[in-house]
Amino acid sequence: MTGPVRDPGLQPERTRLAWRRTTLACTVVAVLGVRQALVGGATGAGALAVAASLLAWLGFLAVVHRRVTGMGTARPAPLPPRLALAAVACTVALAVFAAATLF
Fold first, then answer.
1. Between the CA of residue 94 and those of 17, 21, 29, 30, what are the distances in Å?
2. 57 by DSSP, 3-state: which?
3. Could you give the CA distance from residue 53 to residue 16 in angstroms, rounded to a whole number?
4. Alpha-carbon torsion, ordered 36, 99, 87, 9, to 10 deg
5. Using one digit for the tens of pLDDT, what is the confidence trace for 18-74?
6. How far is the C-alpha of 99 from the C-alpha of 83, rounded, in Å?
7. Hey, CA dihedral for 21, 82, 61, 70, is it positive or negative?
8. CB count, 10 Å around CB of 66?
9. Residues of 80-96 as b/e, b for ≥16 C-beta within 10 angstroms?
10. Euclidean distance between CA atoms 46 and 42, whole angstroms
């Protein structure tokens, strides 16, 4: 015997849109960090911060892609803790590297 069919309504769509907005915000931070590093003069530390920012951004994109594609079912699986930790680590790293390009 199965339980009632779950009607998720628009919740999965809202969650996908939230991930998209967060991805857009991370992209803007990465682009502004690269711009600041290029405008401020190309130093070794600036280039390292830009490279690290791009790696953190790509890592975040990988987490987001995996999560958004996993939400295609009526009952998506919860976000695994390691992916949540990876998303948080990429976001914090991106903020730190972007701040490092300012100094």
1. 21, 16, 8, 7
2. helix
3. 24
4. -70
5. 888 988 988 887 788 778 777 767 677 777 877 888 888 898 899 988 888 887 776
6. 24
7. negative
8. 14
9. eeebeebbeebbebbee
10. 6
